[in-house]
Amino acid sequence: MNGTELGRKRFLRIMNALATKEIDPAELKRMRDENRPFQLVDIREPYEAEICTLGGDLIPMGEVLDRLGELRKDVPVVMHCRSGSRATAMIEALSSRYGFTNLINLKGGILAYAHSAMNLRDRIKLYLKGMAMGAADTVPGVSGGTIAFISGIYEELIDSIGSIGFETLVTLRKQGVAAAWRQINGNFLVTLLAGIATSIVLLVRPITWMLKNEPVLLWSFFFGLIGASVWLCGRLVRKWTVGPFIGFLIGTCAAIAVGLLNASPGSDGPLFFFLAGSVAICAMILPGISGSFILLLLGAYGPVLNAVKEFDLSIIVVFAAGCVVGLMAFSRLLGWMFNHHHDLTVASLSGFLLGSLTIIWPWKEVRSVKTVHSGRPDEHLEPFLTSNVWPSDFNAITEMDTLLGITDKEPQVFLAILLMLFGAALLLGLEYVGSARR
């Protein structure tokens, strides 16, 4: 290929980017490698740039209109934010109101750029985070969203889920599979889901065994882990003003209230299962609240579980449809909240984590039981609803314990405290290592 042909192709790529006002990470890398003239502008907040940056000029979104003179007009200006939504809105505003014609959005933002360069080590780390989420999801009362939040991938997960929708089908039809895959951050989602699925398959039996035989020790580990995460997540709030403080209190009270609710008898209508799916999936991606726990409160846990076991499509399809609708709507709402009210959102979610400590308190008393595998040879009773008790009251054998065949209970206070400290130390240690690498 001669120099003239190569130059023509470069020119066409630039003109195409200017026409669509978007450029993908691969093209930005080519522009950098070939030392083409352009200006790179980061419109994220300073605290975001401290975590990771592509270089260029940092002009926070709220300051762009006051610093228009810093935007060059003689070369293409590539703007980027975290996931592309803020940059898209800013480019549209500047183009329509101020006549800029040389602004380009980095499609998918810095997240897409980072994942386009994701190496094997990065994929393994993301896969392991997925495994941690899967392990949490197998414990009723612990949310995989909690693990996503404290491991630093929560916002990206919400943005990626929120990007899936009708626009994806439009992109698939007009630009092909590769473009649609980039739009939904496919590499990220597939790697994460693979970790979740692997964990559920490998860990469901040992965790189920721990829940049955050593529940105090298992809950103690998660109690320490989530307790430490409240402090770490609270640090992400840039400025604790009245709004974030109120959001923190509301989030805490909401999680505590959920833990105090009694289970309802439920229903058997399709609308009930659709709404149950919508609500449960929202809880599943909220830090601090378990989707299975919400299904239990709604009275849908048993019917849905039986439907899955018996492959009852009349319930499974309706429930799954509710999950899809709830997930799409709620993830977009959370994404909007993160972009427009970051501190309020993070503070509220931190409050959810604090309040959820009442749900995963290690010492519990069984209030009611349920029959499992009714009418079958392996029919037996399992705990259904529980309430928190002090360690000093844990030894008492109740009527429900007798029904379950429990004749002795030990609070294991010393081991429980050790596991709480281990869970907290593990999380703080991982955060320290991550911060040092950043």
What descriptive keywords fit this protein?
two-stranded antiparallel ribbon, five-stranded parallel beta sheet, single chain, Oxidized Rhodanese, domain 1, alpha/beta, 438 residues, 20 helices
Q: End-to-end span in angstroms?
A: 41 Å
Calculate Rg over CA atoms: 25 Å
> Which percent band covers the strand fraction?
5-15%
**What value does the average pLDDT take?**
79
**DSSP, total strands:** 7
Shape: elongated
Pairing-aware structural class of the strands and helices?
A: alpha/beta
Largest sheet: 5 strands, parallel
The total count of helices amounts to: 20
Order of helices and strands: HEHEHEEHEHHHHHHHHHHHHHHEEHH
What strand order characterises the main sheet?
1-5-4-2-3
Helicity range = 55-70%
- Domain module count: 2
Low-confidence parts: 15-20
